[in-house]
Design goal:
Layout (H helix, E strand, L loop, with lengths): L1 H26 L4 H21 L1 H15 L11
Helix pairs in contact: 1-2, 2-3
Length: about 80
């Protein structure tokens, strides 16, 4: 489980770098098609995180929802 968590965190760190790179592209008025290509790559990378280790992703979401859940509310009501 630790190895999967580490891989997921590595993927998320790369994603963070990609998002920062796109922000710099926007700040420097880069060509819109270049920006769109990068946002498509980010979208794909996000899906890759979920596909690479769905169990870790699901567990993280479940723990977060459990913390937000108030007495009397179901998991579906927590958003």
């Amino acid at each position: 489980m630790k190895a999967n968590k580490d891989k997921t965190l590595d993927r998320l760190s790369r994603l963070e770098g990609q998002v920062r790179g796109v922000a710099k592209m926007v700040e420097s008025d880069r060509y819109c098609m270049d920006i769109l290509a990068q946002t498509a790559a980010i979208r794909s990378a996000v899906l890759g995180v979920e596909k690479a280790d769905p169990r870790t992703t699901r567990e993280a979401l479940r723990r977060g929802c459990d913390r937000k859940r108030r007495p009397g509310r179901t998991a579906r009501q927590v958003r």
